[in-house]
User: Which sequence fits this backbone?
């Protein structure tokens, strides 16, 4: 069974208008490990009015809104 690590990221201050899946993972865990043994799940809430919640996959970006919350998990296969 794999090891699962989860964290919550609240974007406080950023100058960019969008943030990527990979950037969110780097904020949450300090780095983005891309291999067949590591998988990530990123969801968000309190986003912009057009799409206030959702999920992201590799390559996706989302508009940054003050107070947006990201839930990020990393699972390592063992």
Assistant:
């Amino acid at each position: 069974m794999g090891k699962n690590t989860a964290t919550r990221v609240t974007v406080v201050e950023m100058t960019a208008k969008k943030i990527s899946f990979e950037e969110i993972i780097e904020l949450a865990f300090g780095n983005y490990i891309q291999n067949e043994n590591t998988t990530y799940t990123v969801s968000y809430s309190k986003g912009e009015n057009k799409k206030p919640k959702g999920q992201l996959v590799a390559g996706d970006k989302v508009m940054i809104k003050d107070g947006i919350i990201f839930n990020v998990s990393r699972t390592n296969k063992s």
In short: The first helix runs from residue 21 to 29. The radius of gyration is 13 Å. The chain has a mean pLDDT of 86.
